[in-house]
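EI: anyone free to look at a 262-residue chain?
SC: sure, send it
EI:
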Amino acid sequence: MIDARGLVLGYRERVVLRDVTFALHAHELVAIVGPNGSGKSTLLRALGGTLTPQAGSVAIDGTPSHALDGDERARRVAFVPAEEHADDDVLVREAVELGRFPHRPWWQWGAQPEDTPLVDAALARLYLEPFAERRIATLSSGERQRVWLAAALAQGAPTLLLDEPTSHLDLAGAYAALDTLHALAEDGAAIAVVLHDLNLAGSSADRLVLVGDGTVLADGPVSDVFRSDLLTRAYGAEIAVHHTNDGALVAVPSRRTRGERR
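SC: here you go
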């Protein structure tokens, strides 16, 4: 669980977000949405303890984030940035094994026997078994994205923070990845993801956090966040909300607004 209170976040003299209070609990998949540059990734980094707030506090499982060393924090929270990198010669299995690093003494660089079932399970869950002995250089961007997700699963942390985990995936792959994350949440994980696709977020997450105007504008179920007034304010563009035939909500920018923003 993560509990953040009264956060002011930014870089040096620049404030990106203020007055942010946020809690992430077990058994939920939360999507953080909002326009480019609104602070979604900044918020995720603060929640994961890799960015120190200018004000406010972040607690991970009841312990202040700043009181945890790197390995202890990594055993509690798996953080996957938007762009992850590995040497091209690294094998897929080796990249996923890196997720086990926080569980080893510092002098043990190689995989341990107890890591094998966890790595195998992560590879299987992301459908990467046929790729296990391939080099990272031979993979597409979408396949690499699945490797970083698998490494996060192998890490075994009860909380996962994922920045744009579907950015390089096609539509079917994006939904499959979010279905996997949703299943993990149902099993007890606490998961927050940054997503750019509003409708993908609305159809996949248990809860949405809408970031805009330098703060959190809304935090709640899809029906509470998918409101034309809130989305229009956040994105600075007129956005309509419609019900599909099966009752789902979809957000659609107006044709006039799309023309203005090209």
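EI: The first helix runs from residue 40 to 48.
SC: 👍
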